[in-house]
């Protein structure tokens, strides 16, 4: 039917949405550590808008050319440049096909 589904990961985003999880004083202790770690790992997106990189990139692609067994991650370079990194998902293709066939059966019912 021309429907496609892809998996994206926004990365670890520094935003105020998580502030209620821990007390404020813990965030004040953790933030410097998080900023230091962000320079050494690409999946730590420093700006909330950077978390949309994979979604926007995916929207611009032709779905029929994308790999269905890949997750597209929003990443940020050490200099703050946003980019998308495809990573193969650990999925058994036979099991995925069986699940897909079962979903088609359920849809018919």
Automatic annotation (TrEMBL):
Superkingdom in the source lineage: Eukaryota
Please list every transmembrane segment annotated in the UniProt record, as residue ranges: 24-45
Which GO BP terms apply? Answer: cholesterol biosynthetic process
GO cellular component entries: endoplasmic reticulum membrane
Q: What is this protein called?
A: DHB7 reductase
Q: Which UniProt keywords apply?
A: Membrane, Transmembrane, Transmembrane helix
InterPro entries per the record?
A: 3KSR/17beta-HSD (IPR052834)
The reply to whether Ribonucleoprotein figures as a keyword in the UniProt entry is no
Q: Which GO terms describe its molecular function?
A: 3-beta-hydroxysteroid 3-dehydrogenase (NADP+) activity; 5-alpha-androstane-3-beta,17-beta-diol dehydrogenase (NADP+) activity; estradiol 17-beta-dehydrogenase [NAD(P)+] activity
Q: Does the keyword Cytoplasm apply?
A: no
């Amino acid at each position: 039917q021309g429907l496609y589904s892809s998996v994206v990961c926004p990365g670890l985003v520094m935003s105020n949405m998580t502030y209620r999880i821990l007390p404020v004083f813990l965030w004040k202790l953790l933030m410097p550590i998080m900023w230091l770690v962000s320079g050494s790992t690409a999946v730590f997106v420093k700006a909330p808008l950077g978390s949309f990189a994979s979604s926007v990139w995916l929207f611009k692609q032709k779905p029929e050319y994308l790999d269905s067994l890949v997750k597209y991650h929003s990443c940020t370079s050490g200099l703050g440049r946003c980019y998308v990194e495809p990573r193969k998902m650990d999925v058994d293709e036979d099991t995925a096909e069986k699940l897909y066939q079962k979903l088609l059966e359920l849809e018919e019912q």
